[in-house]
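Hi there, hope your week has been kind to you so far. Thanks so much in advance, here it is:
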Amino acid sequence: MSERTASCLCGAIKIEIQGSPFLQNLCHCESCQKYTGATFGTMAAYKNEQLKFTESEADVLKTYNDTTPESGGTLKRSFCGNCGSPVRVQSSKNPGASVIPVGIIDGGKDDFKPQIEFFCKRKAGWVGAIEGAKTVDAMP
């Protein structure tokens, strides 16, 4: 992967992404379930310098400091104040990285393949295994 873009549902927030993510994962923790509105989060982790917010997101980018994640620390969960789309997660444990929900990345998603699934102890019983992905019951 070289350059990609990502955007929220209404298009008010746009992100230019340089290079490949250093981690692609699914997270089944309750916090990610509530943040994404799905049974798991499909996420791609990048170094902060790989991401450039290109629209004047200051007017619409909202942040919630999640102090209850099972992984510990605080997660800064950002979303669009217009449409509610989740757009970025930053952890106090890894301030140099940002996690982007794969669903907001524009274009094909076939080249995103989870390497690991976190919090499998919370995984819905109907969700199958991902070939080649490591599974863990918590976050290492």
